[in-house]
Amino acid sequence: MRFAHLGAEPRIHPDAVVAPTAVISGDVTIGPGCQVLHGAVLTAEGSRIVLGENTIVMENALLRASSTHAVHVGAHTLIGPMASVAGADIGEEVFLATGTRIFNGAEIGDRSEVRINAIVHLRTVLPAETVVPIGWVAVGDPVQLLSPDRHDEIWAAQKELDFPGYVFGLDRETPDLMVQLTERYGRSLARHAHDRHLD
């Protein structure tokens, strides 16, 4: 299913294959030889999503661009089932395994691997050919690779990256943070009420 969003329509190369149950919304460019499988969602909510040639987006993966963070995916990259990419730059020949999470402002270098259920936090930079092990967390620039049992170290690095400030423009110490966050984000998401179905 294709949708126009905020006046922009998807551009899909004639050599690409997009499953009929995939959702492609807004300013999305899908290059030649790409495969977007059933249940995948590519939603450009204020900036672009660009897939380089021969990229594969597998079942139920989510790629989301926000007004401040585009998504760029290099050629010959595989995004696994149920993976999530929000406003990040993904290099060429990258493997994002099942269930990986890539956050806003992250940069994944060419030929890197983010293995099953691993996380790359916001504003984290993975140099080319980096491997994030199964279930581990990559955080910061320079990057730290931490096993999930090292919560205190992960939180110390993650706190400095300021998720609510960087993504939503809100101070973490705001007393009603979640009230303001959900109301602000809800207003942004409500713009989908004006989308136009193209199929």
Explain this structure.
The chain is of the alpha/beta class. The protein has one domain: UDP N-Acetylglucosamine Acyltransferase, domain 1. The protein is 15% helix and 30% strand. It contains three helices and 24 strands. The chain has a ten-stranded mixed sheet, with helices on one face. β22 and β23 form a beta hairpin. The longest helix has 13 residues, at 177-189. It is globular, with a radius of gyration of 17 Å.
Secondary structural class: alpha/beta
Structure annotation, total helices: 3
What is the number of beta strands? 24
CATH architecture: 3 Solenoid
Point out poorly predicted stretches.
Answer: none
The CATH topology, please?
Answer: UDP N-Acetylglucosamine Acyltransferase, domain 1
What descriptive keywords fit this protein?
globular; alpha/beta
What's the structural blueprint in terms of helices and strands?
Blueprint: E1 2-4, E2 11-12, E3 17-18, E4 23-25, E5 28-30, E6 35-36, E7 41-44, E8 49-51, E9 56-57, E10 62-65, E11 71-73, E12 78-79, E13 84-86, E14 89-90, E15 95-96, E16 101-102, E17 107-108, E18 113-114, E19 119-120, E20 125-126, E21 131-132, E22 137-139, E23 144-146, H1 151-161, H2 163-168, H3 177-189, E24 196-197
Briefly characterize the structure.
With 199 residues, the chain is α/β, with parallel strands linked by helices.
